[in-house]
Amino acid sequence: MRMPTRHLLGIESLHPRDISALLDLAESYALLNRSGKTRRDVLRGRTLINLFFEDSTRTRTSFELAGKRLGADVINMSVSTSSVSKGETLLDTAATLNAMNCDLLVVRHKSSGAPALLAQKVDAAVINAGDGMHEHPTQALLDALTIRRHKGTLEGLTVAICGDIAHSRVARSNILLLTAMGSTVRVVGPPTLIPSGIEQFGVTIHHDMADGLRGADIVMALRLQTERMSGGLIPSAREFFTFYGLDAAKLAHARPDALVMHPGPMNRGVEIDSQIADHATRSVIREQVEMGVAVRMAVLDVLARTATPNA
Ligand code: CP
Q1: pLDDT value at position 226?
Q2: What three-state secondary structure class fits 291?
Q3: Helix or strand or coil: residue 81?
Q4: Which atom of ligand 1 is nearest to the CA of 136?
Q5: Does pLDDT of 2 surpass 90?
Q6: Which numbered atom of ligand 1 lies nearest the CA of 61?
Q7: Smallest CA separation from ligand 1 atom 4, residue
Q8: Are residues 137 and 8 in contact, defined by beta-carbon separation less than 8 angstroms?
Q9: Residue 195, preceding bond cis, omega within 30 degrees?
Q10: Is the pTM of this model over 0.85?
Q11: What percent of the chain has pLDDT over 90?
Q12: Which family does it belong to (predicted)?
């Protein structure tokens, strides 16, 4: 397969056919990873730079692992010890990396649109690893792969995305992907954490967990993104947990075989109870992390092929 564009900036630019093809390739990488084998020929001679202006555990590590398993030379740029701390701009930093003939540039930034801006300025394929409140496309792809492995399909499922929808790029990318693939998506949270106009994305809004989770196949809990909140949007974390924290009583409204998901990092006792987060049969949170490596291998593979017309 080839991507419709040279970059992966969001789910918005992907056709359902591209999403299915990426998930199929990621599934093959998931099986390869479980077998302990690698495919170092795929990105041999290519250079991948991780440029993270925001903290990350899962995304940065999994892009590094994905690149290495495919044979790329992988560089992790530490922004705090780079010349960014001396005032170098985002564009100058990117131009500097571009001059080193980097092939794949993975970017996380607090500003929505930063990866798209870089994509106009560099020769490398740019991958959005999370930009502000905009998109986190590889997170939505890994979530979709995890769901598809358990449910066999994305079509016809009911997915409840709960908590801080307003500040979540994960919610936005998941809504775009899941609705495009035929799932019904509900967003569940207090009015202060649901952005106005979100129903235009084809979702229904619920302010009560029992109502929002009723009959759901998938329940996705999201972290309160306090770093993006400008004021007190919830009375307290304790009160938030009482009304919106995912615990056994609230999960009982979903289907008995409903899966519990969380993109991480989790705040236990705020948006999710430990008993549910660690549930042996319901929680697929660790599998999400595992699928993150496979999805990122698929994305790197396809973008490298897209950049090389005869590959
Ligand atoms: N889900 C996610 O993006 O996690 P990190 O912030 O640890 O990368």
Answers
A1: 84
A2: helix
A3: helix
A4: 3
A5: no
A6: 8
A7: 58
A8: yes
A9: no
A10: yes
A11: 86
A12: Belongs to the aspartate/ornithine carbamoyltransferase superfamily. ATCase family.
β-strand partners of 126: 105
Q: pLDDT tens-digit profile of 239-266? A: 999 999 999 999 999 999 999 999 999 9
Please answer whether residues 176 and 140 qualify as being in contact, where contact means their C-beta atoms are separated by less than 8 angstroms.
Answer: yes
pLDDT at 231: 72
Helix, strand, coil percentages for the chain (3-state, nearest 5): 45, 15, 40
For ligand 1, whether the C-beta of 245 sits within 6 Å is no
> Relative to the CA of 292, which ligand 1 atom is closest?
1
Distance 310 CA to ligand 1 centre (A): 34
Residue having the nearest C-alpha atom to atom 3 of ligand 1: 59
The answer, yes or no, to whether any atom of ligand 1 lies below 6 A from the CB of 225, is no
| Beta partners for residue 106, in sequence order | 50, 127
Q: Cα separation of 107 and 126, whole Å?
A: 7
Q: Cα of 29 to ligand 1 centre, how many Å?
A: 20
